[in-house]
Amino acid sequence: MTTVRISDDALALACGADGVAAAFAAAGCAVERVSSWGMHWLEPLVEIGGLGFGPATPADVAGILDGTSDKAIGRIAEHPFIARQQRLTFARAGQTRPLSLEDYAATGGWAGLGRARAMSGAAVCAEVLQSGLRGRGGAGFPAGVKWETVRAAPGTRKFIVCNADEGDSGTFADRMLMEGDPFQLIEGMAIAAHAVGAERGYVYVRSEYPHAIGKLNAAIALAAPLIAPFALEVRVGAGAYVCGEETSLLNSIEGKRGEVRAKPPLPALAGLFGCPTVVNNVLTLAAVPHILTAGGASLYARLGIDRSKGTMPVQLAGNVRHGGLFEVAFGITLGELVNDIGGGTASGRPVKAVQVGGPLGAYIHPDRFDLPFDYEAFAKADALIGHGGIVVFDETADMGALAKFAFQFCAAESCGKCTPCRIGSVRGAELVERIRAGQPAPDPVGALAQMYNAPKAARAAAEDVALLEDLCETMKYGSLCALGGFTPYPVLSALRNWPEDFQAGDIARGL
Amino acid sequence: MSEAAIDAILAAHAGREGALLPILHDVQAALGRVDAAAEARIAHALNLSRAEVHGVVSFYHDFRAEADPRPVVQLCRAEACQARGVEALVPAAEAAAGGRVRLETVYCLGLCSAGPNARVGDMLHARLDEAALVKLVEGA
């Protein structure tokens, strides 16, 4: 009987993988549901004996089985998109059944945990530090330093919290990992628990990811005896983007409003329920089992450049021809990722801008495609890597509208605790709108009687732009967390690189 | 009827640390809303003030004070879907939804390489064009 492997990743399902699987089953094949290879433009991708076919529809089944299908892409492992990657965190992608403990163990699963448990907690922290692993959620803080802080902190109860509130547009690596290789995340959390002396862990997943929640719950039930005495629980978010910020996430798990906490105290010292807590992103924790295998830490440290060590699962999204998950060592340039690997835009028009790092990341002009993927290089260019998502826009994109959207998004998702974010976002959206309308009108707030010092005459466009820059500076330095603090990145980068999109009377409006 | 349902949910979560969000999710799923009476009952059980519970309910987008029996279609309108042209589909989707279907904006379903995307219940839909989205809304 022919064995056919089809992904049950949410993206494959959204593209009709279940229908294709049913058609193969009806044709007498044994269908195995595996994780996704991450070549999203080819989903649903069908694999038979290492050969790939995609994007497949039920109508393609007969052709695929008798070898006449024009959807054939050859050997999947040799496909350039796969062959150019250095997959460590996503080593199992496309190749194992997500909820099969047998598959997981057969592909090196639990080796890291076994080795870690034979070591002291301090030694595990030291290895993580030596690997150079930095937080993959966006901030890039060295994971080993965080773990050691929690380990050394006094306290009878400690927690491991996995931040799986992947709300950034253009990112899906956390989702793919939770759906495709949940045991790896569980193993990483169990290693962290051993390292710092925690007995309880939480995975905070956003409610927009029902498939990931289902897979994780099933995987935790299966793996519970293997990770005991460490116990793990999934907590489901409730539609608040700001809960991806670590202190707001902790409040949410505690059953409170997802408002940001002031730091210090650091969560490492006073986190969940006031106890020392490791809060790491899914990708950070999932990288740990590999690092803890024999020689894994030094192998990891050899990859990458400068202080950005190891690999980054880059997510190619938006208007890109070959979108999907591309895990590669740090140092690859943005241009290689967008043009060579992503194949340019899906629409075939020239690339106008790419946004790296989610809704709070800067819009980068194709002039800067020589930027290497590296935390420091991006920071120097007033941009951020964030969670590694790259959203590609073609020339129809209206950067002024996107700048306004950045403010509107911030206004919709602000937790409301600090003024620069709560009020600045609303005023910012109004300002961008006014600049783009190009008709100077007196500011209604400035006209109020109590606004003694506000100019009563209408501001010129140039003055509005100066005010916008001033507002961005206030938000950047005055906000409590990255939501308000980083919203200026997309706004100012759009304003500086595409000032023409902020001018009045521009015709090509609308996306 | 709803009081018994809330009590059963509260009993199921008894003793759980930080149980408020899981409780609210269950109440929202069972009753389609978390109203003032439910807030008071939950507050009493968790030894919280009603204000504290109401603060949490009103903070999160997933909880509603009033039930809305209409079917829901969630449409992603975040940057990646915008880059793939979701905004051009919105007027047609809104027209198809009319007052019968609640067309909700969400920011990201995590299918960013295959937008525009929508979610109906736990079913996801990718690579939508205008015709597919209208059909989805009409069939919801």
Task: Please specify the SSE layout and strand pairing.
The complex is a heterodimer of chains A (511) and B (140).
Chain A: E1 3-7, H1 10-14, H2 17-26, E2 30-34, E3 46-48, E4 51-53, H3 61-65, E5 72-75, H4 80-83, H5 101-106, H6 111-117, H7 121-131, H8 143-152, E6 159-164, H9 173-180, H10 182-196, E7 200-205, H11 210-227, E8 231-236, H12 246-253, E9 277-281, H13 282-291, H14 296-302, E10 304-305, E11 308-309, E12 311-318, E13 324-329, H15 334-341, E14 351-356, E15 363-364, H16 375-380, E16 389-394, H17 399-413, H18 419-437, H19 461-478, H20 482-486, H21 488-497
Parallel strand pairs in A: 1-2, 6-7, 6-9, 7-8, 12-16
Antiparallel strand pairs in A: 1-3, 3-4, 4-5, 10-11, 12-13, 14-15, 14-16
Helix pairs in contact in A: 6-10, 7-8, 7-10, 7-14, 9-10, 9-11, 10-11, 10-13, 17-18, 17-21, 18-19, 19-21
Chain B: H1 2-12, H2 20-31, H3 36-46, H4 50-59, E1 72-76, H5 79-83, H6 90-97, E2 102-106, E3 118-120, E4 123-125, H7 130-139
Helix pairs in contact in B: 1-2, 1-3, 3-4, 6-7
Task: Describe what you observe in this structure.
The complex is a heterodimer of chains A (511) and B (140). Chain A is an alpha/beta fold and 511 residues long. Chain A folds into 4 domains: 3-83, Glutaredoxin (3-Layer(aba) Sandwich), CATH 3.40.30; 101-302, Rossmann fold, CATH 3.40.50.11540; 304-394, Ubiquitin-like (UB roll) (Roll), CATH 3.10.20.600; 399-502, de novo design (two linked rop proteins) (Up-down Bundle), CATH 1.20.1440. In chain A, 40% of the residues lie in helices and 15% in strands. Chain A has 21 helices and 16 strands. Chain A has helices at 10-14, 17-26, 61-65, 80-83, 101-106, 111-117, 121-131, 143-152, 173-180, 182-196, 210-227, 246-253, 282-291, 296-302, 334-341, 375-380, 399-413, 419-437, 461-478, 482-486, 488-497; strands at residues 3-7, 30-34, 46-48, 51-53, 72-75, 159-164, 200-205, 231-236, 277-281, 304-305, 308-309, 311-318, 324-329, 351-356, 363-364, 389-394. In chain A, strands 2-1-3-4-5 form a 5-stranded mixed β-sheet, covered by helices on one side. Chain A has a 5-stranded mixed β-sheet with strand order 13-12-16-14-15. In chain A, strands 8-7-6-9 form a 4-stranded parallel β-sheet, sandwiched between helices. In chain A, strand 7 (200-205), helix 11 (210-227) and strand 8 (231-236) form a beta-alpha-beta unit. The termini of chain A are far apart. Chain B has 140 residues and is an alpha+beta fold. Chain B folds into 2 domains: 2-59, no CATH class; 72-139, 3-Layer(aba) Sandwich (Glutaredoxin). Chain B has helices spanning 2-12, 20-31, 36-46, 50-59, 79-83, 90-97, 130-139, and strands at 72-76, 102-106, 118-120, 123-125. A 4-stranded mixed β-sheet of chain B has the order 2-1-3-4, with helices on one face. In chain B, helix 6 packs parallel to helix 7. The mean pLDDT of chain B is 96. Classes of the chains: A alpha/beta (511), B alpha+beta (140). Chains A and B meet through helix 1, strand 12, strand 16 and helix 17 of A and helix 2, helix 4 and helix 5 of B.
